[in-house]
Specification:
CATH class of the largest domain: Mainly Beta
Shape: elongated
Distance between the termini: 89 Å
Largest sheet: 5 strands, mixed
CATH superfamily of the largest domain: Immunoglobulins
Radius of gyration: 26 Å
CATH topology of the largest domain: Immunoglobulin-like
Number of domains: 2
């Protein structure tokens, strides 16, 4: 009984080592891209970072790396740096261990798209990009009014849920009155005043003002 158990344990150990060895060997032949996050909602006018890491077979040298959203023709991928819609708003940063970060500044609602990373080796024939990419949604701020005359609520509305879960700042007649959630109840405002909102850390990006006259 003891010998049988020992044999099973030995066989199990050999199997684990074998599978680990296979994984290591296969890892040397994998082309892949892994995105840090696959969905981001960011504020119009702000900046955003999209990042990924990539692997490639040993023996190759990576010569070209870039992010893109557009393919104009077969194998004709356009780097964001060469895209006139992003001129002067895009930077790339190579990180350690094959990491890559894309930064887009002065975000526009038209920047809402799926961003993918692509790399090419020294032969120019091995090209790879990761799926599904990063889905970026860009939203502005808008104050919406709900409820009746006595129980109105102001809501700082966005078209998607901001990824960084910010604190909202409320302004009355251009002056800060409260840091709160995205909603402001009726006991916090009065008639004949205008209200706008922003998110903490980007107070320069106000919503259009709404008058409760």
């Amino acid at each position: 009984m003891g010998d049988a158990t020992m044999a099973l344990r030995t066989a199990g150990s050999v199997l684990v080592v074998f599978l680990w060895s296979v994984a290591v060997v296969l890892g040397q032949y994998i082309w892949s891209v892994t995105y840090t996050t696959q969905s981001i909602c960011a504020l119009k006018g702000s900046a955003v970072e999209l990042s990924c890491s990539y692997t490639y077979p040993s023996g190759y040298t990576i010569t070209t790396t870039f992010w893109f959203t557009k393919i104009y023709a077969e194998e004709n991928y356009v780097s964001l740096k060469d895209d006139p819609d992003y001129k002067g708003r895009v930077t790339y940063r190579e990180d350690e261990e094959n990491g890559h970060t894309l930064t887009i500044t002065d975000l526009r609602e038209s920047d809402s798209a799926t961003y993918k990373f692509r790399f090419t080796d020294q032969t120019g024939t091995w090209r790879y990009f990761g799926r599904p990419g990063v889905s970026l949604s860009v939203t502005g701020l808008q104050v919406k009014v709900t409820g009746g005359h006595q129980d109105k609520t102001l809501t700082c509305s966005t078209t998607c849920t901001l990824t960084d879960n910010p604190t909202y700042i409320w302004y009355k007649n251009g002056h800060k009155v409260k840091e709160d959630t995205s909603s402001l109840d009726s006991d916090s405002f009065s008639d004949a005043d205008s209200y706008s909102c922003a998110v903490k850390g980007r107070e320069d990006l106000h919503s259009p003002a709404v008058c409760e006259c």
